TrEMBL record, chain A:
SUPFAM superfamilies xref list: Histidine-containing phosphotransfer domain, HPT domain (SSF47226)
GO terms for MF: histidine phosphotransfer kinase activity; protein histidine kinase binding
Stated name of the protein: Histidine-containing phosphotransfer protein
Lineage: Eukaryota, Viridiplantae, Streptophyta, Embryophyta, Tracheophyta
InterPro entries: AHP1-5/YPD1 (IPR045871), HPT_dom_sf (IPR036641), Sig_transdc_His_kin_Hpt_dom (IPR008207)
GO biological process: cytokinin-activated signaling pathway; phosphorelay signal transduction system
UniProt keyword annotation of Nucleus present: yes
Domain of life where this protein originates: Eukaryota
Positions of the HPt domain: 39-134
Function per UniProt: Functions as a two-component phosphorelay mediators between cytokinin sensor histidine kinases and response regulators (B-type ARRs). Plays an important role in propagating cytokinin signal transduction.
One Pfam family recorded for the sequence: Hpt
Positions of post-translational Phosphohistidine modification: 80
Domains: entry comment: Histidine-containing phosphotransfer domain (HPt) contains an active histidine that mediates the phosphotransfer.
TrEMBL record, chain B:
Annotated source species: Abeliophyllum distichum
Protein's UniProt name: histidine kinase
Entries under Pfam families matching the protein: CHASE, HATPase_c, HisKA, Receiver_CRE1, Response_reg
Domain Response regulatory per the UniProt entry, residue ranges: 708-830, 856-993
Taxonomic lineage: Eukaryota, Viridiplantae, Streptophyta, Embryophyta, Tracheophyta
Catalytic activity: ATP + protein L-histidine = ADP + protein N-phospho-L-histidine
Signal peptide annotation: none
Enzyme Commission number(s): 2.7.13.3
Length: 152, 1001
């Protein structure tokens, strides 16, 4: 039980720090609420889809921006997609980066786009890292026989 | 007397001081009574000291009085003695003086007739007889004698002349003589002297002293010498008389041979002296004789003393009894300055006891002791009462502590039960969300209901405990009465619909919209009364009316005249007037019209809840408001409840300065009526909730303003309720009694109603007529066909009307009518968007679950994450979700006939966006519908749906007005923002869900 308690505390501290630092927002809590006994792996599923989807989108974005003639509309579409999925997961910083990214797309500013691609990429890997840690913690708690604390 | 007054004044001073002291103490005690309670013992001792002082004081006083009075008596006695003594002394003196004067007169007689004549005119015989005959004049003398002055030279001659020799009396005095033996002849002749004074004349009583030389006697000699020197009467000291041997004195006067001037010298007097006249006073017998003449001689004893020699007074009269009692001394003056005499008087008897003084003082003492006793008893009593009081205080404290402990216990236990109960309820709630079979779900529902019942019971008990401990306070906030009643209505709507009981609320338009008071508690009363009514009513109605008290008085008179069966459901009801017959508000109203004028700010509401239930048995009516009393144990078993609801309600009504009453007729129904006082709402800006409702209603009212409605209802009371609710939306209502009149109303030009409400009862009565009416409405020549609604109080399906080509049932509005429900129904059918903002998350989530449960919903989104999340959310509410990633996929899935109840579609999608896909779906639907209408396809084959129109809701992250307009333009039914919000989802889903349930004709 002691281990569970420790893990739970660690989990709460960690997720709180994520909220505090703006990596995640309320949508992640909503996501957690949607997970129930009939759908126990919901969050993991959604997050892993988000990871796959995002990596694909980032690749697409990178290749699009490396084209001789950059199709900004296409780029905008990708960014929009990325924005939608990140907001669905609650990855706030990625979403914010995407919003700014889209402005550069509208301006057809290749430099800005390139810079923001890097930023978005950076933010994405950061949040991916964090979320993986979080999910791993959850797994550990569950394996130790505890329950994942709910964050209000 | 002075001592007495002094004592009293002293006593007075002491008394005054004491009184001051006491009163000071009282003054001190009285205001600081509480302070003294602590030092009771001290005070007790103090009182005891005071009591002792009191007793001692009064003992002293009574002794003082005793002393005073007895001394007064002694004084009086002394005075009496003095006056008696003086009187006796004066009498004695007077009589003595009389005798003395007489003897003096006799001396003059002798000088005149013995010495003045030659030969003498007086001899012994003459003298004796004269004196004998004048003895009455000298009451005090026992005898008179005259002795002549004889010088030695003349002795011989004198002896010869008289015939006897001069004899001396020394021996006589030395040897006691007896009267019988006494003989002057035996006496020795007088020895030779310078001069002699032999007695020559004597009264017979003293004849034995003739020839005796008075100068030879010591006493007589002195007397004689003094008498001739002074020329006045001279007295001897008392001595034993010759012969009689009694005490006596002799008074001697000198007889001069010529008249002497009054200032003659003593030698002249001696020289002129010729003889001596002596009177013998037998003092003893004389005084006795004198006293016998006076009254009350027995009372006092008299002693007479010669006090010439002060150191050795000679007793002249009186027994020498030693008596140290009181005596009085009076001086006697017998005319001889040389001799002093005194009379001593004393009482024969000892002074009597001063009974008066003794009784008086002892009476005073007894009174004082009695007062002391009373005082003591009082103090004891006070002390006892005080002790009892303290004991009571202790007990009271204990009782209060126990009461507080009880309330505390109740509150704590209630709270402690509530907390885990919330956990239990929450868990049950969550359990409901999981995959359960029907039996399990039923179990859980039962458990949940039991839990809720338990929580409400605990709340009631908590309320009761609060009431008992007097810690119940009302809020004063601004609230909307109608909104509260609507809330309560929706709370009971399910139950009433289930039972088929008509539930209605009517609020008089005179009642202000905004009131200030405690909405929660008002709601509690209403909920309680309505809950009871619905619980005990199986058929008929439950009707709540709210009026102003002023208005209600008139209203009741009107009601009295109207027929008795004109109630909401037509069933007889208990007379409402009786339920509030005893209300003070009414008597006030009748007696003085000042009611309305004096309290302009006050709103006196009268609320009555009327039902057609089983009523309260007569024998149970008296204890309806008693806590924990129910009609009978069987009621508790069948209907549950604690039986404190009404007691709490009554208390709440009292807190609202109102009264509650009821009338109940078994098997007919009960009517509960209460009054409550509120104040006019001065709407507070902070009061978010009511503000919001108000705004919402206002904005909605605008949408329906200027609309006209036709209400077909044969029953005026029910019509009144419906009109009240419809008019709240700003719609003008015309009421007709039946459909025939409805035809007439519809036919009239330029007054075609926008909406027609028909009571279900009217509709079902004559279906042919109803159909006719429906067709009439459709054939009306106007831009918008009037919308038709049926008003029903039960869920049971409305009988469909076949109108030849199409089968159609008008929209049904389930009673109880309330503003929100009407708005929703009207908006739904008239397509007026609701842009209001609901904020009631919890309720929505629940309702959402009910709305979405088992619904088949297609979600279209190219973003896998979004798709997944949306699906999760909808699944969470029990929907059956199908996912699609492409618009084309959606189109193929939604090609009629299909089994989807709704579609959520992302707008921005690659290849084909949401707008495009929706357009295509709508095109497909319309062509399919046409084919059905044209009879190419049979309705029965395609789920009995005559018109295919799947609700499509856009999912968009950008909630911009333009987007939503575009959504509607391309045939979408609404939009929801991404990520999903329960609120918004509910609103949109509730819109389309109804269109699924009741197809728009």
């Amino acid at each position: 039980m002691e281990i569970v308690g420790q893990l739970q505390k660690q989990y709460v501290d960690f997720i709180n720090s994520l909220f505090r630092e703006g990596y995640l927002d309320d949508q992640y809590v909503q996501l957690q609420k949607l997970q129930d006994d009939s759908n126990p792996e919901f969050v993991v599923e959604v997050v892993s889809i988000f990871f796959e989807d995002s990596e694909k989108l980032l690749n697409d974005l990178a290749s699009s921006l490396q084209q001789q003639v950059v199709d900004f509309k296409k780029v905008d579409g990708y960014v929009h997609q990325f924005k939608g999925s990140s907001s669905s997961v609650g990855a706030q910083r990625v979403k914010n980066a995407c919003v700014a990214f889209r402005n550069f797309c509208d301006e057809k500013n290749l430099d800005g786009c390139s810079r923001f691609l890097n930023l978005v990429k950076q933010e994405f890997y950061l949040v991916k890292n964090k979320l993986e840690t979080l999910l791993r913690l959850e797994q550990q708690i569950l394996q130790a026989g505890g329950t994942v604390p709910l964050i209000e | 007397m002075s001592t007495k007054s002094g004592l009293f004044s002293d006593g007075g001073k002491i008394w005054m001081k004491l009184w001051e002291h006491i009163s000071q103490c009282f003054c001190k005690i009285h205001p600081h009574y509480a302070l003294y309670i602590g030092s009771r013992k001290v005070r007790k001792n103090w009182w005891r000291k005071l009591l002792v002082a009191w007793i001692v004081f009064w003992i002293l006083i009574s002794f003082g009085i005793l002393w005073c009075m007895s001394s007064q008596a002694v004084e009086k006695r002394k005075e009496a003695l003095a006056s008696m003594c003086d009187e006796r002394a004066r009498m004695l003196q007077d009589q003595f003086n009389v005798s003395m004067n007489h003897i003096q007169a006799m001396s003059v007689l002798i000088a005149t007739f013995h010495h003045g004549k030659n030969p003498s005119a007086i001899d012994q015989i003459t003298f004796a007889s004269y004196t004998e005959r004048t003895a009455f004049d000298r009451p005090l003398t026992s005898g008179v004698a005259y002795a002549a002055r004889v010088l030695h030279s003349e002795r011989e001659q004198f002896e010869i002349q008289q015939g006897w020799t001069i004899k001396r009396m020394d021996s006589v005095e030395q040897t006691p003589v007896h009267e019988d033996e006494y003989d002057p002849a035996d006496l020795e002749p007088s020895p030779v002297q310078d001069e002699y004074a032999p007695v020559i004349f004597a009264q017979d009583t003293v004849a034995h002293i003739i020839s005796i030389d008075v100068l030879s006697g010591k006493e007589d000699c002195e007397n004689v010498l003094r008498a001739r020197e002074s020329g006045k009467g001279v007295l001897t000291a008392p001595f034993r008389l010759l012969k009689t041997n009694r005490l006596g004195v002799i008074l001697t006067f000198a007889v001069y041979k010529r008249d002497l001037p009054p200032y003659a010298t003593s030698s002249e007097r001696i020289e002129a002296t010729v003889g001596y006249l002596g009177g013998i006073f037998d003092v003893e017998s004389l005084v006795e004789k004198l006293l016998q003449q006076l009254a009350s001689k027995q009372v006092i004893l008299v002693n007479v003393y010669d006090t010439t020699n002060l150191s050795d007074p000679i007793s002249m009269y009186g027994s020498n009894i030693l008596n140290d009692g009181m005596r009085h001394v009076s001086d006697l003056n017998f005319g001889d300055p040389f001799r002093k005499h005194e009379m001593h008087c004393r009482f024969k008897l000892k002074p009597p006891w001063p009974w008066v003084a003794i009784t008086t003082s002892s009476a005073i003492l007894v009174i004082a002791l009695l007062m002391g006793q009373i005082f003591h008893a009082t103090m004891n009593r006070i002390a006892k009462v005080e002790d009892d009081y303290h004991e009571m205080m202790e007990l009271k404290k204990l009782a209060e502590a126990a009461d507080v402990a009880k309330s505390q216990f109740l509150a704590t236990v209630s709270h402690e039960i509530r907390t885990p109960m919330n956990g239990v309820l929450g868990m049950l709630h969550m359990l409901m969300d999981t995959d359960l079979d029907e039996t399990q779900e039923d179990y859980i529902r039962t458990a949940q209901e039991s839990g809720k019942a338990l929580v409400s019971l605990i709340n009631e008990v908590l309320d009761q405990a609060k009431i008992e401990s007097g810690r119940f306070e009302l809020e004063t906030v601004c609230f909307d009465l109608k909104a509260i009643l609507d809330d309560v209505l929706s709370l009971f709507s399910g139950k009433s619909q289930e039972k088929g009981v008509e539930l209605a609320v009517y609020v008089s338009d005179k009642v202000p919209a905004k009131l200030v008071g405690d909405p929660g508690r008002f709601r509690q009363i209403i909920t309680n009364l309505m809950g009871n009514s619905i619980k005990f009513t199986e058929k008929g109605h439950v009707y709540v009316t709210v009026h102003l008290v002023e208005e209600a008085v008139n209203l009741m008179d009107v009601e009295m005249e109207s027929p008795s069966n004109s109630t909401l459901s037509g069933l007889p009801v208990a007379d409402r007037r009786q339920s509030c017959a005893g209300f003070k508000a009414f008597s006030q109203e009748e007696s003085a019209p000042m009611f309305s004028s004096s309290s302009t700010d006050q709103v006196n509401l009268i609320v009555s809840v009327e039902d057609t239930g089983q009523g309260i048995p007569l024998e149970a009516q008296s204890r309806v408001f008693t806590p924990f009393m129910q009609v009978g144990p069987s009621i508790t078993r069948t209907h549950g409840g604690t039986g404190i609801g009404l007691s709490i309600s009554r208390f709440l009504v009292q807190l609202m300065k109102g009264e509650i009453g009821f009338v109940s007729l078994p098997q007919i129904g009960s009517t509960f009526t209460f009054t409550a006082v509120f104040t006019h709402g001065c709407c507070n800006v902070n009061d978010q909730k009511s503000q919001k409702i108000n705004n919402q209603l206002n904005s909605i009212s605008l949408e329906f303003r200027e609309m006209r409605a036709l209400l077909v209802d044969p029953r005026p009371v029910r019509a009144k309720v419906s009109v009240y609710h419809i008019e709240r939306l700003g719609i003008h209502v015309e009421v007709v009694r039946d459909l025939d009149k409805g035809f007439f109303s519809v036919n009239t030009e330029n007054s075609i109603p926008n909406i027609v409400f028909i009571e279900r009862e009217v509709w079902d009565k004559d279906l042919a007529l109803s159909t006719l009416f429906l067709n009439k409405l459709r054939s009306l020549d106007c831009k918008v066909t009037p919308k038709l609604f049926l008003l029903s109080s039960t869920i049971s399906s409305t009988r469909a009307i076949s109108t030849g080509s199409s089968v159609s049932t008008p929209s049904v509005i389930l009673k109880p009518l309330r503003a929100s429900l009407l708005i929703a129904s009207l908006q739904r059918s008239m397509g007026i968007g609701n842009r209001g903002n609901h904020r009631n998350g919890e309720l929505r989530t629940l309702s959402l679950r009910n709305l979405l449960r088992g619904r088949k919903i297609l979600v279209v989104d190219d973003n896998l994450v979004n798709l997944k999340v949306a699906a999760g959310a909808l699944k969470k509410y029990g929907a059956d979700v199908v996912l699609a990633e492409r618009g084309k996929e959606a189109i193929s899935l939604l090609t009629p006939p299909h089994h989807f109840d709704a579609c959520f579609m992302d707008i921005q999608m690659p290849e084909m966006d949401g707008f495009e896909a929706t357009k295509r779906i709508r095109d497909m639907e319309s062509s399919f519908n046409n084919r059905i209408h044209n009879g190419e396809l049979s309705v029965e084959a395609y789920r009995n749906i005559s018109t295919w129109h799947v609700p499509i809701l856009a999912m968009t992250a950008d909630v911009i007005q333009a987007t939503s307009e575009e959504c509607l333009k391309c045939g979408m039914d609404g939009y929801v923002s991404k990520p999903f919000e329960a609120e918004q989802l509910y609103r949109e889903v509730s819109r389309f869900s109804h269109t699924v349930l009741y197809e728009i004709p």
